[in-house]
Each structure stands twice: as C-alpha cells, then as structure tokens.
Design a protein that fits this description.
The protein is mainly alpha-helical. It has helices spanning 3-23, 28-44, 59-85, 87-90, 106-118, 144-162, 165-183, 192-195, and strands at residues 95-100, 122-128, 133-138. The protein folds into two domains: 1-46; 50-195, no CATH class. The chain has a three-stranded antiparallel beta sheet with strand order 1-3-2, with helices on one face. The chain starts with a helix and ends with a helix.
C-alpha cells in the first residue's frame, strides 16, 4: 500500500471521527454519513503538496491521537457550556496567545490547525509561516504557558501518529522547556528564535 493511500485512509478515518464528535453520536447512521462526507472531501480536495515523504503512519499512536482529540472536544464543550450557564463562575478571561510551533510537515500542520479550530472556545486568528507561530484566541486564558502546552501536546499526538521521529523529539524538547519554566514560575521562554 502506497504512502498516499495510507494517508488518504487515515484522513477518512480521522474526518469520520471528527464528524461523530461534532454530531455527538456514534450511531451507525452517523458513522456512515461521516465516512461518506470524509471520502467526498478527500476526493474533492486532495492534498495540494503531493509530497507525503515525511508521513510515518503509526496505527496505535493514530488511535491515541483520535482519542485525545475526542477527549479535548468533550472537555472543551463542558467548559463552554459552563461559561454560558454561569459566566461569572466560569471566570471568562478571553485573550490572544502567540504559540510557536516546531516546524512540521504540511499534513501535520493541517491536522493541528483543524484540531485547534474545532475545539470550542479556541479560534486561530493568524498562522505565521516563518517562523511557524499560531495566534490563538482562547475563551479562558489562565496562563500563557498552559495554552502553549495544550497546543504542543496536540502537535505531539499528531506527530507521534504521522510525523518523523526528529520532529517528535523537537516537540518533546519544547514541552520540557515550557514545563521547566512553568515549574519555576518563570515567564514563557521565547522560542521563536529556535524555530526560525
């Protein structure tokens, strides 16, 4: 099986899971409808890059990625529902955070952008390519380091499922740097030079 076929099958499975999560149902009809929509989308909008040389499909990590996405969606839906029901108690503190990412393949980046955009309470305002930085609007901004870690954990799950090992190591190093800064109460380290 070619890398392109594996990537297309992976995209169909991932889009079907996202469809079920958005529809909040895993009935047979929802799964079939999601698969039909996913197949149509992958046929109508094929990968522009055409280069899948960086794709390393790992089935168990792919399953973990999807379970993580589903968990993030459920948690975010609960947080947004609580913010609507009791806005004062929810402690709404909207803000925009610049999150530098580890350079990655176009497939990983597109999946990451979709995962962040689909999560209720977050909105990607801007994507800078050189260096790779996301400007993300969040509904509940507790700490900048928390937003950085959350986005990098999503990137890590996607890279673990579909990316090269070197990128995974770089994401792990970035997460460790952020954790160390957060533990010592320091500011978020400026990692934009590292990605340039």
């Amino acid at each position: 099986m070619s890398a392109r076929t594996v990537a297309r099958i992976g995209a169909v499975v991932w889009l079907t899971i996202v469809w079920c999560a958005v529809m909040e149902s895993i009935s047979l009809g929802t799964v079939v409808a999601g698969a039909v929509v996913a197949i149509a989308l992958t046929l109508l909008f094929p990968s522009r890059s055409g280069n899948l040389s960086g794709v390393r499909f790992r089935p168990l990590a792919f399953l973990a990625m999807n379970l993580g996405l589903f968990g993030d969606l459920v948690r975010a839906n609960i947080q947004v529902a609580w913010a609507v029901i009791a806005p004062r108690r929810a402690g709404l503190r909207p803000g925009i955070v610049l999150v530098p990412l580890v350079p990655c393949t176009e497939l990983v980046l597109q999946l990451l952008l979709n995962a962040v955009s689909l999560t209720p309470g977050t909105l990607i305002v801007e994507v800078r390519r050189e260096p790779l930085v996301l400007a993300i609007h969040v509904l509940q901004l507790h700490t900048e380091a928390g937003v950085h870690l959350e986005v990098l954990r999503v990137q890590r799950r996607i890279v673990a499922a579909l990316g090269p090992r070197a990128t995974l190591d770089a994401v792990d190093a970035r997460i460790e740097a952020l954790r160390a800064a957060a533990e010592h109460g320091g500011p978020v380290p400026d990692l934009t030079e590292e990605v340039s």
